[in-house]
Amino acid sequence: MKNLPLRYGTNPNQTPARVYMQNGADLPLAILNGSPGYINLLDALNAWQLVRELKQALGQPAAASFKHVSPSGAAVAVPLSDVLKRIYFVDDVKLSPLAVAYARARGVDRMSSFGDFIALSETVDVPTAKLISREVSDGVVAPAYQPEALEILKKKKQGKYAVIQMDATYEPQPTETRQVFGVSMEQRRNDRRVTRDDFSNVVTRKKELPESAVRDMLVAWITLKFTQSNSVCYVADGQTIGVGAGQQSRVHCARLAGAKADLWRLRQHPAVLALPFKEHVKRPDRDNAIDQFLQLDTTDAEKQNWKNVFAEIPAPLSAAQRRAWLDGLTDVTLGSDAFFPFRDSIDRAAKSGVKYVLQPGGSARDEDVIAACDEYGMTMVFSGLRLFHH
Q1: CA 140, chain centre distance (Å)
Q2: Is 282 helix (H, G, I), strand (E, B) or coil?
Q3: 192 close to 385: Cβ distance less than 8 angstroms
Q4: How many CB atoms neighbour CB 206 within 10 A?
Q5: Catalytic site residues?
Q6: What is the mean pLDDT of residues 318-344?
Q7: How many C-beta atoms lie closer than 10 Å to residue 24's C-beta?
Q8: Is residue 302 very low, low, confident or very high in pLDDT (cuts 50, 70, 90)?
Q9: Distance between CA atoms of residues 311 and 56, nearest Å
Q10: DSSP label at 337?
Q11: Are 96 and 77 spatial neighbours (Cβ–Cβ below 8 Å)?
């Protein structure tokens, strides 16, 4: 396929629209089902690069859930605990390694992943296709599909679900070009691969960097590479647990990602696991209700709506209960796509169990940031490489 016409571009008024290769070559992708749109393809191409690099770096199946050209979640196939299976709504099914990676990527921030575009590093198997079939999603990109898995996906969204097969051997040209307001800009694409040497410059008094932290730094590094800047992400157990993307202030990125990481942790609280949902309530409605339940400023109107989802109105968690539970979150890795200009992001990170920090370094206040990490007993690495993505 050399040319793919689209219904419209970013918005319905932006017509005509198409996808093609400037050199006249065939597109490195095939549409196996549905009609992906302009934004779908932006998500698919960015997400594919992320999972491809995660697989190359860690040698494990990888998955990403994208919304508006940034990941809601990204993960590799680290086995799930029983609690995580419950909060990801996968405790009732058999999971393959690829399905585990997808469950992690989709489950970490379920509200942001509602209507996502999925990327998978491996041939899509039946367990993974069955999980995808249960969620609200726009499409999926992968290198191949088992025949039965493809048939499952083709039935989604009344047969309109977008299924894209990516040529796993495709490598773009080293130079990329884009147009903004009729002006063409050219640069070398960001094809720099992460290596373990990127984590060798430990600048804090604490030097410990176990293999689990190195793994999570790899996940953070590659996730940030394909997240709209400014960006910060929190990583634990081989998956992102909070992504803050596209903020103008770095501390706002840290706060946004930290708030998501806190919600991920609080969703594992026994009180949340015991919420008395009515039988008919669907997963997206459960996600919304859990999110409201965990907010400190839940309104009376929101609580009134709980009557539609809960068999009985639950008592909210107190501030002390929340803090005690959040204090049980440890060994989290914080990654930043550029340097921290102030120590405020480190102070925020300490509230969400951060023990390891990955950033490029290079700020005039690096010593202040190092001192903050030393105060909290964190290990911080300067990679020396900025990861802006626009």
Answers
A1: 15
A2: coil
A3: yes
A4: 15
A5: 67-68, 230, 390
A6: 95
A7: 8
A8: confident
A9: 47
A10: S
A11: no
